[in-house]
Structures are given as structure tokens and as C-alpha cells.
């Protein structure tokens, strides 16, 4: 591996006596795309906060480009979890994207025209040209999310941290944003992508970090997204099935609608859904349908 751009060494953190994760050793190379998966409350967003310098580790170290992770670094881009902006926010869409441009990059102040061209290109890439001059507070959640992606990519960061950036985007815009992030990896940006569903990004992912309260695993998708590995991590039987290049993760045991006591459930969705993956609620009916499909040979 080339010199890592992001490193965690024996990192650990917890709150109020509860350990979220510990002994986390991770090196991410320039241009690498790391997906971070795991149940609710496993500490995925906390990991991003550590890398943003917003949260201190209890043990170990976190470095970006060899220096301790710190707040406000222009070398780190961040697409936060979606939150609706107030209707009266005094920013147009293009202003929000421009905020992501480092006005003094490499010590040279951006020329106003260069800046406008760059903003226009970013707006176009996320499909936001039509509402470039609309106040952000009047836009839909998905439209605002596309602007956050454009803003985070504006400075071509060394590390891009994404906290469920595809949440609430329609399929077309999921693909557009994923393509944009993928393109950024070609330029050398390392991506840490927290998600509940691997399938929308499965073709972009180099490695997976899967976190659970019992421990974590790091490896390629094929190494980590396996029945034995997830069963060991959850401490309960989990099946991982592949269907047309997409993964279906399902629990073998349900108590009512839950997979295992104390664990938010991994998802089961109809295998025909191209977006199936680790995610929301599981119904016994879904389970039966899937099993029947499996018996009928529809799932390989
Ligand atoms: N500053 C804090 N003080 C106390 N507890 C915290 C703090 N930050 C996070 N936590 C707790 O740590 C746990 C992990 O939170 P985190 O948001 O990292 O989980 P997550 O894996 O991103 O979950 P989700 O998938 O639901 O977004 C939660 O129980 C949360 O309440």
C-alpha cells in the first residue's frame, strides 16, 4: 500500500462506561474507497467525528496525512447526515457550494471567474444547475443533500468523510452522487463512506469496515460480507446471499420483528429490489418471501 492518508492505531472510544469500539487499526490509502457498515449505535458516525477532530479517542491515535486529526482541516471534506436547513437560511444553492472552495488554495486566491466556473461545474455534476440561484431553505431534503456533496468535493480534499450521503436520494441521484465520489477517488481522494446499504456503492468499494458492539472486521467486500463473518460479529446466525451482484443480508432468527436481542436488525428486502442491503426493518413476510424465492432458485 502507498503511504496511508488516514491512519487509526489501537483506537478506541466509548461513552458513559460503554465501549463503542476498541483496538481499531486502519490505514486508508489515497484513492481508496472504504465503506463503514454496522447496526445503529455501533459508532460509525463517532468514527467520522474522531477523524474530523470533533471527538477525542480514549485510546490510540487518529492521523490524517501523518498529523493528528484536527477540527477544520481543509484537507478533509465531509458530507454530513441529512438535516433539513431552515427555510430562512440566507444562502443560494451556488453560495453553499462556493463555501466549500478554499479561497486561498496553494496560497493563490481564486479568481472570481475561476471560482464561478468551478461552482457551476460542481452544480452541474450533482444535477443542481436548475436551482443554482434558489435559497437552500426552499429546496427538498434530497436537493440539499446534493449540494452538501458538491460542497464537500469542492476543495478536492485528501480525505472525504461521508455519513449516509445517499439517504433520501432517489435512485438516479444515488447513482450520480456515487459516480461523483468515485471520480474523486481517481483524483486521489480517500473516501470513508458510512452507510446502511452497501449495494448502491458495491461497485466502488475497495474495502469494508464492519462494526458491531462485539467487534469489527476489515477486508474486501468478499472477505467481510460473508455469513460466517457477520454471524460471528453479530453473535447470531446471519445469511449473506448474492443476487445479480447485489447482497442480501438476513437473520435466520426473528423474535417478532427483531433479529437478535440487543441488536438492531440487518435487513431483508425483496431480492428483486436492486437496492437491497444492510438496512431497515424486517418483516416475517419479507423473510418468507425471500426464503420461498430462494427455494425457487431465484437467489444465488
Ligand atoms: N458525545 C457523546 N456522548 C455520549 N454518547 C454519545 C456521544 N456521541 C455518541 N454517543 C453514543 O454513542 C453511540 C454510537 O453513536 P453513533 O452515532 O456513532 O452510532 P452510529 O453507528 O453512527 O449509529 P446510526 O447507524 O444509528 O447512525 C450512540 O449510542 C450514541 O448515543
Automatic annotation (TrEMBL):
Keywords (A to Z) from UniProt: ATP-binding, Nucleotide-binding, Transport
Region feature (Disordered): 258-300
Statement: the UniProt record of this protein carries the keyword ATP-binding: yes
Pfam families found in the cross-reference section: ABC_tran
Record protein name field: Metal ABC transporter ATP-binding protein
Family: Belongs to the ABC transporter superfamily.
PROSITE patterns: ABC_TRANSPORTER_2
Annotated ranges, domain ABC transporter: 6-238
GO molecular function list: ATP binding
Source organism of this protein record: Nesterenkonia aerolata
Stretches with biased composition (Basic and acidic residues): 281-300
Amino acid at each position: 500500500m502507498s503511504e496511508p492518508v488516514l491512519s487509526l492505531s489501537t483506537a478506541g472510544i466509548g461513552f458513559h462506561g460503554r465501549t463503542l469500539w476498541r483496538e481499531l487499526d486502519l490505514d486508508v490509502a489515497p484513492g481508496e474507497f472504504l465503506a463503514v457498515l454496522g447496526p445503529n449505535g455501533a459508532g460509525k458516525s463517532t468514527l467520522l467525528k474522531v477523524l474530523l477532530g470533533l471527538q477525542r479517542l480514549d485510546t490510540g491515535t487518529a492521523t490524517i496525512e501523518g498529523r493528528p486529526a484536527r477540527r477544520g482541516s481543509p484537507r478533509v471534506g465531509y458530507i454530513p447526515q441529512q438535516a433539513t436547513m431552515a427555510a430562512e437560511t440566507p444562502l443560494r444553492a451556488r453560495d453553499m457550494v462556493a463555501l466549500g472552495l478554499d479561497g486561498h488554495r496553494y496560497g493563490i486566491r481564486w479568481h472570481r471567474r475561476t471560482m464561478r466556473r468551478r461552482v457551476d461545474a460542481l452544480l452541474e455534476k450533482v444535477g443542481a444547475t436548475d436551482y443554482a440561484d434558489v435559497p437552500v431553505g426552499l429546496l427538498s431534503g434530497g436537493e440539499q443533500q446534493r449540494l452538501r456533496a458538491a460542497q464537500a468535493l469542492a476543495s478536492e480534499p485528501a480525505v472525504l468523510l461521508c455519513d449516509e450521503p445517499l439517504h433520501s436520494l432517489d435512485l438516479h441521484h444515488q447513482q450520480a452522487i456515487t459516480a461523483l465520489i468515485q471520480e474523486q477517488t481517481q483524483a486521489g481522494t480517500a473516501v470513508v463512506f458510512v452507510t446502511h446499504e452497501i449495494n448502491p456503492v458495491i461497485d466502488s468499494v475497495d474495502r469494508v469496515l464492519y462494526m458491531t458492539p462485539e467487534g469489527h472486521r476489515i477486508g474486501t467486500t468478499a472477505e467481510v460480507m460473508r455469513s460466517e463473518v457477520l454471524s460471528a460479529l453479530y453473535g447470531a446466525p446471519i445469511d449473506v446471499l448474492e443476487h445479480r451482484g447485489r447482497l442480501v443480508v438476513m437473520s435466520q432468527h426473528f423474535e417478532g420483528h427483531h433479529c437478535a436481542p440487543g441488536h438492531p436488525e440487518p435487513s431483508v428486502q425483496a431480492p428483486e429490489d436492486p437496492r437491497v442491503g444492510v438496512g431497515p426493518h424486517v418483516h416475517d413476510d419479507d423473510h418468507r418471501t425471500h426464503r420461498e424465492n430462494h427455494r425457487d432458485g431465484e437467489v444465488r
